[in-house]
Amino acid sequence: MTRYINKTEWRQLVLLTVLSFGIFTAAAQSLSKNDYGNIHDTAKLNFQSDSIILLHKDQAKDKLLQATATVYTPQLITTPAPSFLQALPGRLSGLYTRQRSGIQDTDNPSGVIDFKIRGQVPLILVDGVPRDFASIDPESIESVTVLKDAPATVMLGQRSSGNIILVTTRRPTAIPFKLSFTAQRGVQNLLSRTKPISSADYAILYNEARNNDDLAPVYSANDILTYQNGSDPLFHADNNYAKYFLNKNALLDRYNVNIQSGNEVAAFYVALDYQKEGGFFNTADLNSYSTNTGTDRYIVRSNVKVNLNKTLSVGVNIFGRIQNANQPGATTSSVFNALTFTPANAYSIFNPDSSLGGNDNYSNNIYGMLNMSGYRKSTLRDLSSDIEITQKLDTWLKGLWARGTLSYNNTVDQTVNRSKNFATYRLAINTGAPVYGQIGTNTAQPNTLAIDTRRTYTYGKLSMGYDKVKGDNSLNLLLLADNQSTTSNLQLPSTYTNIAANAVYSFAKKYFAEATVSYGGHNRFAPGRRFGLFYAGALGWDLAKESFLSDVEWITQLKPRFSYGLTGNANVGYYVYDQYYDYWGSTAAYYFGATPALARGFSELALANPYATWEKAYKLNIGVDALLFANRLQLTSEYFNDSYFDLMQVRGNSISLIGQSYPSENIGKNRYTGIENNITWRTGDETKGYFLAANLSVLKSKVLFSDEVFRPYDHQRRTGLPVGQAFGYVAEGFYQSQAEIDAGPIVEGYVPKPGDIQYKDLNNDGYINQFDETAIGTLKPLIYYGGTAGFHYKGFDLSISVQGVANNDIVSSTGYNSVTSSLEYEFQGGGTGQLFEHHLGRWTPANAAQATYPRLSIGSNSNNQRASTFWVRRMDYLRIQNVDIGYSLPKRLIQGIKLEGVRVFANGFNLYSFDRQNYLDPESFNSIFPLRRTFNFGINIKL
Amino acid sequence: MNRHIYIFLIAIFSVVVSCQKLEDWPMERIKEDYLWDARDSLGTNAGYFLNTIYGEMPTGFNRIGGNVLGTATDDAIPSADNTVIARFTSGGYSPIDNADDSWSANYASIRKCNLFLQNFPKVTLKESIRQEGVYWMAEARFLRALFYFELVKRYGGVPLLGDDILSLNDDLKLPRNTYDECITYIVSECDAVKNSLRPDPVSNSDYGRITQMAALTLKAKTLLYAASPLNNATNDKSKWTRAKDALADAIVRAEAGGFSLENSFSNVFLTRKNSEVILAFQRQVTTDLELNNAPVGYVSGNTASRGRTSPTQDLVDAFTTIKGLPIEEDLRSANNLTGYDANNPYANRDPRLSLTVFYNGMPWLTRPVETFDGGADRPGGITVQTKTGYYMRKFLGDFTTGTAYSNQNHNFPLFRYADVLLMFAEAKNEADGPADSVYTYLREIRKRAGILEGSAPALYGIPDGLSQDQMRQLIRNERRVEMAFEEQRFWDLRRWKIAENVYNQPLHGMRIIRTGSNLTYNVEVLTVPFQFFAPRMYRYPIPFSEISKNQNLVQNEGY
After folding, report:
1. Which of A361, A365, A359 is nearest to A339 (CA)?
2. Average pLDDT over residues B262-267
3. Core vs surface per residue A92-106: b (16+ CB within 10 A) or e
4. What is the maximum span of chain B, computed from C-alpha positions, in angstroms?
5. Are A380 and A297 in contact, with CB atoms under 8 Å apart?
6. Cβ contact, residue pair B272, A596, below 8 Å
7. Does the CB of B107 have a partner CB in chain A at under 8 Å?
8. pTM above 0.90, yes or no
9. What residues have CB less than 8 Å from A159, skipping those under 6 apart?
10. Closest Cα of chain A to B101: distance in Å?
11. Residues A87 and A275: beta-carbon distance below 8 Å
12. Element housing A488 (H / E)
């Protein structure tokens, strides 16, 4: 089922499209050929670049043997979103993304977006160093490359298994003065899919659920009638909270100016960026301060490179960011929670005396949360500085160089908490004067400061290289030692140290070989068990350079390549090699004495694992690169087979007779295999051209070993199935009658009633119990894909990118990858939760045949709400991720005012998705924050 | 110029690289050598470790999803719907779903005991407190035995670990020991420590520590369980005799140690240090029991009481009249004005009734309890409220007057002297028939309860010359009434092997209709499920997660 677009959204979409096209066509008609200004690059794909940025080095493209994929600035700046990471979905072959939540004001990319490369969570490096900021201006990013195989990552030693997203900021180059100014305004709206039901329906269903549970109804016929006709809003409220308290739109404004300039001696790139994100809450103007959400972000960046003399150059990058965010004192997430899960009839928002309504079950009046709970202001400050010094040592040996790199980053996130509590009042009118019962208290507004995060990242590297070309032979050698240390809050630094060597050899640009070794250590392992050896090698052969293909003109490159290596991943807790004991002083459980005296305690913490070592993987990658038809067609295909072993897992047979929690041990073995294909067709010149790019990845995983517990039946076994396979019961419709229940198997621990989900007795023992659980949801490999297409013609340019996932099944039950139960089940939160439209399809004797949902009950139902095929949701989707349309003014119009180029543009983000879900988002299904759609327009001026 | 640049750059590098000098492990973490420090002559840290074990002793009250264990017996039902404890009576516990599963918690506590027993000897206490160290060792051994008792009570025979501290490399797939082996172990541990524990009575500051009397009581209780029909299928009289002897020992020691029945029944639960409690889980003073269990119409401060427990009519009917006679026998009539009157059912009853349940009209805080339909404590609608017309009153402070709750002592009694006397009466009656001592102790308990003495040969409503079976029924009823909500009946019904008959019967509640100022009392049948599947429910299932990890563990019958 596809999802709806509401009228307003359509209107905005159409209006923007018509408006943009109107301007463009009008302007276009007055123009002649070849006199357009600076055509924006968005409609082009840069693969003309000769080299690609890899870990610790730039690699000439023709020598590239690693599995990688790259996007450049132009593809990043079309996405109107706070973080450049949101521009990545679908654009990089092999990168799986899932936008988990639409929450605003967060700088933690992994809190919002899941990234996976070949099934692993990648490390995000900015200019080679892990840093905290994903929320930066995309204009300052030169490229984003994903590194996917062993040779690409192995120099990271104990962090090389997880693959890498490598972000490189703009490098200063020797070009004349260029200034680019962009101003844009985005309009965001929430793509909420939850459809709450009316008070009358709620009351009817509540009674029905009580009746199902053999309980007396609580709403009288008169109550329901009153809900229906709305004649008593005070005691029979029918609230539409989203309508009352959410604005349709929130603004996202951004201004960016960047300057590039340089000559042989010095070059620089500086940028200033300001972004303002508005909030969705409809707050009343009660306070002198804002209680709405909102974020202001200021960024300054300066990347400078100076050649101090003929052999010595110094690069200095300085980045600073301040991000101020505001939210209501009750917190954004509590407000969204209340908006989503408060039934329409919970309370009347105001009492007749204008105090806030509430009662014992629903004491958090949303109006109060938004306007009377004070506010919280957080400030995030980052400072990052890198210095890189390169000395050419040609005087000693031609082609020899040495380099020192230092990087220091500091992030502090602090919150000023000025939140307060407010009272609500339970109104009762029995006889005589109304009685107001106070619930909660109005408290004074405190003023406290909390440091939420304080992190420091330091990095130092010394490297030495030797580049030599002699005849057909070309050799590049690299030797490096680096040390990266992260200090997070009060913890001791987590330090990774590597010594690595890399050699790349090619002969006649035909035969290529590369070898890398690294000796990497991590300080969280037991002394003497900290360093390990990792290695990788790769071979390639460009057939196009062979004589038998040299006269085939349409083939520029046809390079099969092969790589293999051993990578590592330090997945270890905080100094777990020693046994620790915990001290509790203030919270005690037992009070000695005739007058109670607090008894302090010590207890043993989880068992230590002194033998913990890094996880390892043997990674095989076979790929082919092809450049065809005068470089217009580029093809890349990869096959990979990654065998992970020594994975840190708690043993399956964790027998509790030991009396203590088990530590993670190096137990698991998983295998990930798959293919990744990327195809790009690009043609055109300055005035016209088009491109198409598509990528498709297939990922298959298998648990090879996990110390699985004894399973008496084969259908219960997890080993051999995909990693993270969901398990549950096989649902077989609803019990339609008591007779059917009596004839069926006994459900252990539950007495079924008609309308309950019926399960298959897989082991035929007459009982429905844990032995009847089996793999549910698809076993097929996960497929994810993306596509981008665009053209430019005269001054116009247009690009569209789509992205999608297939074979993705989600099971509603507990667990990370599951639907939030309160969005799926009825009357959650101890029976006080909201109902949604899909609950109307519940089983009743009357609609037994058409029921789409089991009989209702209040609160939890251990039979219906267990993981089963009934709750498997197919989360396949195809999403129009990004559309960007622009028009560049003709040169002759702007030359008079000394401008290099002027481009007006409109773009959109997260525009439309095709999927099968009604009330759940295929990506953010376990978040109460709906994803956002953004329409954005702006102007870019260059001089 | 160039040279200066290099010197400058090298200087920066060396400063930045060398500036961090930190410890190599988190020194704020506590390690073994600190905890069991041989030089800790006061044993402070080791003492703290023992305190933690104390904190893991069994406790009671609203502990299972907010409900008392009594709501899984015929004494009460939970007021709320869909509680986890309701599953005990609507399909029973299963290997994957048991709200009172304590398998791993008890083994975790046993590990702590063994850690203490193995490591504490490393600590050299100063001479003046050496004896304290001896007590501590004995306390840890007692506590270990207590945790085994909790396991055996629930699961039957369990693996006995002895003094071993299991480690990751050990063979952990241990089989179960037999029920008898476990009983023997618990009893022998109690015997081993009974003389090295603190003698009774203890000083005020040591109150709450394990004493010699506690060890004797645990031993006796263990033997009583082992002699009971569930565990004594052949009705081997010698088992009853052993239990009786152990109980007799305990009574002798109790008298020497200053134990006696408290004068006031309510003092047993509210006075922190009293002459009756042998061992209690000692808690901070709180109002949690009042807030959890008092009738829902009462607001103390700004907090409404939650009325979580709804005692049944069946429990209320078990309370005798003030003369100690069953309500069916002692009916009100013109010449028996203190008899039971169905139209005024709470008058002239065993005084323990008003200390065990809230019934309509009882004074509390600012007004009488209103559990008639539409009353403040039974208002109807969606609020959680009584399902039976009663609320649980036991353990609560005396707030028959006053406007708000104040902090009370709410220690959960694990062993008390009245229990010892009742257990003795039971064991004696089973071993030797209704001897004089049985009558004596039962009458002492009734006397303390406030039952009228009456006249011989039926003092306190107990006529002389009862048959063994009549006496058995009387003891069981007395135990139900005296020990209500103290987590006894749930296990008693099982060890007496009568659960299959007590459960699977309808439970009853009281529906009171008020017309004007007239109240009509109607006993109604409750519709809540009240099932017991024999024989499997006599034992808890061993958690499925353990069975599937350890093929040497044999699951209890029927699961």
Report:
1. A365
2. 93
3. bbbbbbbbbbbbbbb
4. 123
5. no
6. yes
7. yes
8. no
9. A123, A153, A496, A520, A568, A569, A570
10. 13
11. no
12. strand A473-488
Interface mutation vs chain B, best among A223, A524, A581, most B CBs within 10 Å:
A581
Tokens matching residue A418: 């000025």
DSSP output for A490-515? TSPPEEEEEEEEEEEEEETTTEEEEE
Which residues between 827 and 866 in chain A have a beta carbon less than 8 angstroms from any beta carbon of chain B?
831, 857-862
Closest chain B residue to the Cα of A707, Cα to Cα? B549
Residue of chain B with shortest Cα separation from A459 = B17
Question: What residue ranges of chain A have pLDDT lower than 70?
Answer: 1-49, 104-111, 133, 430-432, 585-588, 812-817
Report the b/e string of A634-643 with b at 16+ CB within 10 A: bbbbbbbebb
Q: Which residue has the tokens 């992260």?
A: A486
Spell out the alpha helix ranges (H) of A289-409.
332-341, 366-371
Closest to A672 in 3D by CA, of A692, A649, A631, A701: A701
Is the separation of the CB atoms in B74 and B502 below 8 Å?
Answer: yes
Angle at A468 between CA A467 and CA A472, to 5 degrees: 135
HSE-up of A377 (CA within 13 Å, CB side)? 12
Out of A408, A438, A594, whose CB is closest to B273? Answer: A594
- Rounded Cα distance between A368 and A346, Å, is 14
d(CA A505, CA A469): 10
Which residues between 118 and 157 in chain A have a beta carbon less than 8 angstroms from any beta carbon of chain B?
A: none
Helix or strand run (H / E) with residue B239? helix B237-256
Could you count the other beta carbons within 10 Å of the beta carbon of residue A595? 13
Residue the block writes with tokens 């949604």: A836
Give the mean pLDDT of chain A: 88
Are the CB atoms for A335 and A280 separated by under 8 Å? no
**DSSP code string of B358-415:** E-TT-EETTEE---STTSTTS--SSS---SSS-EE-TT----SSSSS---B--PEEEE
**A52, A787, B286 from A696: Cα distances, Å:** 21, 9, 63
ipTM of the complex: 0.91
Give the tens place of pLDDT for each residue, A31-50: 333 344 444 444 444 445 67
Alpha carbon distance A41, A145 (integer Å): 18
CA–CA distance, B290 with B306 (Å, rounded to integer)? 9
Q: What is the pLDDT of residues A294-328, one digit of tens each?
A: 999 999 999 999 998 889 999 999 999 999 999 99
Q: In sequence order, which residues have a C-beta less than 8 Å from that of residue A365 and are 6 or more positions away?
A: A347, A349, A356, A357, A358, A422, A424
Indicate yes or no: CB of A601 within 8 angstroms of CB of B16. Answer: no
- Buried b vs exposed e over B111-132: b needs ≥16 C-beta within 10 Å? bbbbbbbeebeebebeeeeeeb
A residues 279-308 lying closer than 8 A (beta carbon) to B: 308
